[in-house]
Amino acid sequence: MFKTNIQKGREGENTAREYLEKQGYKILETNRRFSRFCEIDIIALDGDTLVFVEVKTRSTNKCGAPEEAITRGKYNNIKTGLFNYLQGNPEYKKYRIDVISIILKPEITVKHLKNIYL
C-alpha cells in the first residue's frame, strides 16, 4: 500500500523525534506554525542550545537525498520562525538550525546535519 506524502512526513517526524530523544535532546514543541509559510518541525534543547529542526523524509533515495529539498527560501522561512520564537523566549542565548534526513526504504536511515547554513 502506498503512503501519502503527509503519512510519510508524519512517520519521518516521529522517527526524528525518537532519534533526538535517544540522543538526549529535550523536545519542546513539534509542528510549530508561525505563518502559512513557516512551520518548524521540531524545537528541542541540546544542553543549553535551542535547536530548530527541519525533517525531510523520502521513501527512497532514488530521486536524491532528502536534505537536498531544502531551498534557500525554506531556510529563510525557518530563520523567520526562529527569530519569532526567540523574541518570545529571550532566555535562550544559543541556537542553531539542524536538518534530519530520513529514508524509509529499504531500511530506515537517519542522517543528522547540525548547524546548517545556506
Notes on the structure:
This protein has one domain: Trna Endonuclease, Chain: A, domain 1 (3-Layer(aba) Sandwich). The protein is built from 2 helices and 5 strands; from the N terminus they run αβββαββ. It has helices at residues 5-22, 72-88; strands at 26-33, 39-46, 49-58, 94-103, 109-113. The chain has a 5-stranded mixed sheet, with helices on both faces.
Could you write a compact summary of the structure shown?
The chain has 118 residues and is an alpha+beta fold.
- Radius of gyration, Cα only, in angstroms? 14 Å
Number of strands: 5
The residue-averaged pLDDT reads 92
Distance between the termini: 36 Å
Structural class: alpha+beta
Count of alpha and pi helical runs: 2
Shape: globular
Number of domains: 1
Give the key terms.
about 120 residues, alpha+beta, Trna Endonuclease, Chain: A, domain 1, five-stranded mixed beta sheet, 2 helices, 5 strands, about 30% helix
How do the strands and helices of this protein lay out in sequence?
Layout: H1 5-22, E1 26-33, E2 39-46, E3 49-58, H2 72-88, E4 94-103, E5 109-113
Parallel strand pairs: 3-4
Antiparallel strand pairs: 1-2, 2-3, 4-5
